[in-house]
């Protein structure tokens, strides 16, 4: 973003665009929390990865609404920025793979090559498009084998629009936003008064009342996990908010984007002992917990046990129903995969593209009858102000 004037313009545009979907963004009243069904905290979290994106194109409003309808505890998103400094929900730094950007003549000269995390990437970058331009695009599925009927129908949404979806839900639904590619975003987008991407990210959460440490009374009203692959961003924001943070861990071959550390360094006991001062958990790529060869699971590593020994939760990614992603050990049955990860590996949350399947699995295999768990919930809710 060039200057404060274009920033104000962006805010104004955001307001106009936002108003078609939701007139203003009022902070919800305190008492409506009392009447809403609380977040469940007695079993592993169902984290709707990019919404219910197995069904509906990722990070769109309908994908999030579907996830909420299907029982998500948290809706997950990736935060990037537009050229004019508006935070948006979008996974890739380029628009090419999940939007129709390539079909517009007006954008054909917008293609660029930038270095992103030590790799040269060519395409249409979100940081070269204003929010208004981004809103003119339509999103489609990343994978051709997913239901095409919603392709080309929905817009990119802003971070604020995403938050409003969670706050408008009829029950308490948490948010799980990622500070995505912070090194790259801070190189390409400038905010007034030397503010960084991470500052704007935290300010946005504060604006909507997101605060408090994990399981605090305030957190339970508006639950949020902040996630990032960049440890320096997590450390930086821990100075600004005590919302719980989760350190994402990539494949064993990938070094961290900011500190250039290897997988082995960041999963060592020494490092877990350090990072636990800033985060409540780790979010590893699941194939690093249980390595895979020729599509068969190998012997599980001790990463979950070591993280738990450091009092860190483990929320692996990504669970996907399709044959293209299920390892042979699971007999092409996603419930078998959930059973393995929840009951054998013992994870604390799962990022899934199919929130409905995980929810059904958890409901159908729960030892708590519905009424029992409801009563437990009520009790937890009643005692939480005194703990
Ligand atoms: C986009 O898709 C291409 C082809 O499938 C893939 O090689 C590339 O990694 C994807 N880009 C991003 C940013 O995901
Ligand atoms: C990216 O491309 C530039 C220009 O061609 C080159 O100087 C640079 O070394 C490349 N970076 C990587 C990581 O390949
Ligand atoms: C946190 O804030 C303190 C006081 O403003 C500052 O001295 C310190 O450098 C900050 N730490 C980080 C990691 O930004
Ligand atoms: C990152 O670390 C690797 C391994 O030590 C090294 O080869 C590489 O040059 C480093 N990259 C940067 C940008 O420092
Ligand atoms: C997965 O299946 C392969 C082949 O049958 C077997 O060798 C391996 O032990 C299985 N992995 C696990 C974790 O059960
Ligand atoms: C219910 O709990 C018992 C005792 O902890 C356990 O053995 C059993 O596997 C559980 N059943 C289900 C369906 O989770």
TrEMBL record:
Coiled-coil stretches noted in the UniProt entry, renumbered to this chain: none
Span of domain GP-PDE: 44-362
Reaction catalyzed: a sn-glycero-3-phosphodiester + H2O = an alcohol + sn-glycerol 3-phosphate + H(+)
Gene Ontology MF annotations: glycerophosphodiester phosphodiesterase activity
First and last residue of the signal peptide: 1-21
PROSITE patterns: GP_PDE
InterPro entries hit by this protein: GP_PDE_dom, PLC-like_Pdiesterase_TIM-brl
EC number: 3.1.4.46
Highest taxon of the lineage: Eukaryota
Pfam families: GDPD
Group of enzyme by EC: hydrolase
Keywords for this protein: Glycerol metabolism, Hydrolase, Signal
UniProt family annotation: Belongs to the glycerophosphoryl diester phosphodiesterase family.
PANTHER family: GLYCEROPHOSPHODIESTER PHOSPHODIESTERASE GDPD5-RELATED, GLYCEROPHOSPHORYL DIESTER PHOSPHODIESTERASE
Name of this chain's protein: glycerophosphodiester phosphodiesterase
Native source species: Stylosanthes scabra
